[in-house]
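Minimal example, chain plus nicotinamide-adenine-dinucleotide.
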Amino acid sequence: MTENRFAGKVAFVTGAGSGIGRATALAFAAEGANVVLADIDTAGNDETARLAAEHGGKVLAVKCDVTSSSDIQAAINQTVEQFGRLDVAFNNAGIEQPAAPLVDISEHEWSRIINIDLSSAFLCMKYQIPAMLEHGGGSIVNTSSGAGVIGIRGQAAYVAAKHGLIGLTKSTALDYAAQGIRVNAICPGIIETPMMDRFSGGTPEGRAHVIGQEPVGRMGSPEEIASAVLWLSSDLGSFATGHAMVIDGGQTAGI
Ligand code: NAD
């Protein structure tokens, strides 16, 4: 039986057009939330909107580049205009870094990764928090990674961004704890999404290589991340704030 933990709530999800963002948006919708889908990819976002509408809740799909302050402000304004409030945010949009040792990372590539994978969460929270404070609080989850808690060869920019997200999450949690806003991070391991397909090359060898990092012997599913995000965002997680929750099949447990 599906629970209804988000009935009457408004959930805003970035990177909703694919992978973990799509699975989480659909999970919020299945539990009664009105969902706002924010993604730069309109086709993927529209498909998530179609799937979310099957759950019967209200859905708003917005084209939004999470590196653009004006896009984010417009998306949050539209959210409040359409649904009257903002309760939950999942700041999840991100991109992978093509593997390269530090000297071979161009300055442009460094800025691209940091802007999309780290500064985006700063911008999103900067405009989400005032909307949440309007009605006394809310919950935010930012998508970090196993790369947020360990170093990875060839991944300096991505790892720096994902470590930075945890610091950003903890400090923001402290800033707003007394005002009813909880801020947590989720740190997924190897998850079966289009991003992981690109990263592994999608070949049997590439898949076997990344699965080799997983003590449980398989990739996680986007739904296994969504269920943790929903727990953190719901009243069941009401005492959790400033936490970086690792959901990674044991990938980082022995490191
Ligand atoms: P994905 O590529 O399937 O989905 C990412 C989504 O983000 C896409 O819909 C894409 O269009 C969107 N996006 C990218 N740039 C954007 C921008 N500038 N503005 C708005 N939207 C943008 O990837 P995924 O695997 O679902 O990854 C989601 C998040 O999870 C990312 O932050 C990623 O770093 C993180 N993560 C993924 C894994 C994994 O194994 N898949 C592991 C750890 C962390």
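Residues 14-15, 17-21, 39-41, 44, 64-67, 92-95, 116, 143, 145, 188, 190-191, 193-196 surround nicotinamide-adenine-dinucleotide (CB under 6 Å). The first strand starts at residue 10 and ends at 14.
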